[in-house]
Amino acid sequence: MGIAFSHLGICVTDLERSMAFYCEGLGFELAERHEVGNEFSRLMELDGVNVSSQFITKDGVRIELLAFATPIVEQVGRRPMNRTGLTHLSLRVTDLDATVAALVSLGGALVDDTLTELAFGDSTLRFVYLTDPDGTRVELMDFGG
Question: What is the dihedral of CA 23, 100, 16, 131, to 10 degrees?
């Protein structure tokens, strides 16, 4: 039995805004795009599916951004870390402050009071959470130079 990772999916409210956040802000690259209809209603457990599916990729990781025309997207905001399911995406960065500023300018939001700094040898490890434009939590890790 062969098993290989394919992708993870993120529901978004504005596909163009999310593509800018992930591609311009985090360095993902656009891959294939599909328009999906009722043929996927059973799989998605939704009636009247009409969704744009935009794949993005970085370092072998594939994310599917799903922008539903129908049914209407249910916005829930940032999920608590202790709720079952996907809690966050995590990326390493080389300039935490510049990356945060860029992502906020692209519709992201800094999660207040999450900046954490830890001494590690001669350097300082820095971590922070922010969210994408729809509230999906993104962890940025700067391991110093």
Answer: 110
The pLDDT value given to residue 76: 84
The pLDDT > 70 percentage for the chain reads: 99
Specify whether the CB–CB gap between 95 and 144 falls below 8 A.
no
Does the pTM exceed 0.90? yes
- If asked whether residues 93 and 61 sit together in one domain, one would say no
- Which CATH number do you get for residue 125? 3.10.180.10
- Alpha-carbon torsion (61, 27, 122, 114), positive or negative: negative
Domain containing 114: what range? 89-142
Count CB neighbours of 91 within 10 A: 15
Q: What is the pLDDT of residues 9-51, one digit of tens each?
A: 999 999 999 999 999 999 999 999 999 999 999 999 999 999 9
> Is residue 81 in a domain?
no
- SS3 of 68, please? strand
Residue 41 host element (H or E): helix 41-44
Note whether residue 96 is domain-resident: yes
Give the number of other CB atoms < 10 A from CB of residue 74. 7
